[in-house]
Amino acid sequence: MLKERGYIYASKHEGWYSVSDETFYPASAVHLALDPRTGRKFMASQETGKEVEWTSETNYHFRLSALRDRLLQFYAENPNFVEPSTRMQDVVQQVTAGLSDLSVSRPVDRLSWGIPVPDDTSQTIYVWLDALINYLTKANYPFQVPGQEHAAGWPADVHVIGKDIVRFHCIYWPAFLLALDLPLPKQILTHAHWTLGREKMSKSTGNVVNPFFALNRFGSDVMRYYLVHDGGIRDDSDYGNEYIIQRYRSLQGTLGNLVSRVVRGKEWNVRHAVKSGRIDADDETKQHVATLMTLPSVVEHWMGKLQPGTAMKEVLKVLDQVRLPMALSHRSYFPPRSTQTHLALSIPQRLLTVLTDKQIHHHHLPLVPY
Question: What is the pTM of this model?
Answer without folding.
Answer: 0.77
